[in-house]
Amino acid sequence: MERGGDDEWSAWLDYDGDDGPSVLEGSSVDHEQPSMEEGNGDPEQPTQKDTRGRSKRNDITKMVSEGKKLEVEYNNYGQHWGKGAMTKLTRIGAWVRTNIPLRDITWPRVSQDLKNQLWEHIKAAFDVPDTDKKLTISKSRDRWKDWKNTLTEGIFTFKDVALQLLEKPPKLYEKIIDLQEWREFVASRLSPEFEVKRKKAQKSRSCNVYSHRTG
């Protein structure tokens, strides 16, 4: 089946790497609105559509500026849950997308300094114990990998049907992904070496009888 229509492109642009909105009761969320980029007039040609922007989470920014922190609840297994946890995950996702590079790096090679900066960023906004650092770093790894996987799926969706759409970062992220870094990331994903790695991973996943995700 042919892929790459406007709806699919918009779905990729709309994805923000998080588990959905986590708006606090009574709070408001402002959205950055990307500008519309006109196509070439060909109705069959996929184009980037205007989409909702990334959440700025001004409510959290205001709370931090007032010296307040959001409480995070934990269950008997040490896993966080509830609105505080979802908001924390959203903030982690936004931080790693902005501060950790896409290209030529794996999570073990992310500097400890960056991981410490992330932890301080989270502690400034959330009432969490020091024992939460390990879990926070682990969730950061997951968020970063999920985001890269989403971008990779977009690349493979459009590489054969609308390669020109990959010349620039998706609109939703064009302000946080450097153009050169994006082009190098695309090139790395379209390399023969990554194709071998991708097929190996797909084969491994196809052998899984059940898909599990734990908190």
From TrEMBL:
This is Uncharacterized protein. The lineage of its organism: Eukaryota, Viridiplantae, Streptophyta, Embryophyta, Tracheophyta. Residues 1-62 are annotated as: Disordered. Residues 47-62 have a biased composition (Basic and acidic residues). Residues 7-19 have a biased composition (Acidic residues).
